[in-house]
């Protein structure tokens, strides 16, 4: 069941779009997939098994009581109704406490992840103690949320227990009256008391457990906040570029108060080479993100061979465009897996691409070559080596449009120029380079250098 919950959640994550995914920090997803799944186990699935057991006890005891006198069943039925209503007084509060608890779990995971990722910065500034102070507050908030939940669950349990006790006394009195009226034998009075105790004790447990079980529903509701992207399925699949990508009168803002691009127009023609330059924060990366269909909330138009981006299947668009970031993520897997990422090419094609991106030196240094395992986020690689891996990934795609977002900045000038020259020499390639260090010889070969 854990596997199914996680699989459904990962399906949701993998099928959402770029903007929806980044609506939450990664740590929130970590919390969903770990803390929340544990909560679903502890309060959801485990309770379900208890409740099944308790309901079996109740049903069998009711049958036994029925053999003494039918009227006992009526008393039990009325009291059961009252017992089932008692926890309803607490359901809303319990749900709220459950949500608060999962939110605090998310907050703690977020803080812990954030501060541990910043370990190097804090350490070099001589501030390692900040790790404690930054996480203690969220840890305390989580503890408070857990106590609040326990208090509500405890109050509910106490109320149901009192109703249960009164109900057991009521059945005993009823049985005693039946005995006095000579309707049941004396032994049935003590047995009725025993079965009443079984019924109401099991009911006490079952009602509290059902309430706790339902308190995990808000977690599933929370998962629904991550919408699955269904737009692409309705749209047109993208084929290799024949003519041009045209941006027309485009306006874009991450935050409505601060527009990044205003009335921006630009054309990228097939097989031509471009550079985007400009001050830091001027919007160069944003333009690439728009071109690759990652940012979709803009006004104006982007057209791919005349077709509006809004009508295109953006997944298939991304198969036509290789987008190379400045700091690519390196997975904790072999170098080969890091390059292929599930795609298939022949060994000779792979070797040729590695040669082209200048990754040979790194492979020669690694103990198992291409099959050496890299650490999480490539902590044992240099920035330049990571960028070469990213370039190989892009070339494996075989896409004829390539967008480089300062993708060679960690390499020395010569290596960076070599790679850029290699891409410029490819007549099939449509190339856009975002850079702060445009070498004159490279600039001279470009179709256009656009200043943002
Ligand atoms: N995800 C984001 N959310 C909010 N604002 C953002 C986001 N990404 C970028 N911005 C803002 O948008 C503006 C343009 O950013 P962008 O990264 O496109 O600039 P850039 O020209 O590529 O900068 P640099 O040369 O430093 O990489 C900046 O003011 C930046 O703060």
TrEMBL record:
ABC transporter domain sequence ranges: 245-451
Membrane topology: Multi-pass membrane protein
Cross-referenced InterPro entries: AAA+_ATPase (IPR003593), ABC1_TM_dom (IPR011527), ABC1_TM_sf (IPR036640), ABC_transporter-like_ATP-bd (IPR003439), ABC_transporter-like_CS (IPR017871), P-loop_NTPase (IPR027417), Type_1_exporter (IPR039421)
Pfam family, one: ABC_tran
Residue ranges of domain ABC transmembrane type-1 in the record: 1-215
GO molecular function, one term: ATP binding
Localization: Cell membrane
Entry's transmembrane regions: 43-66, 72-90, 160-184
Predominant localisation class: membrane
SUPFAM superfamilies assigned: ABC transporter transmembrane region (SSF90123), P-loop containing nucleoside triphosphate hydrolases (SSF52540)
Domain of life: Bacteria
Protein's UniProt keywords contain S-adenosyl-L-methionine: no
Keywords, ordered alphabetically: ATP-binding, Membrane, Nucleotide-binding, Transmembrane, Transmembrane helix
Protein name as annotated: ATP-binding cassette domain-containing protein
Organism taxonomic ancestry: Bacteria, Bacillati, Bacillota, Bacilli, Lactobacillales
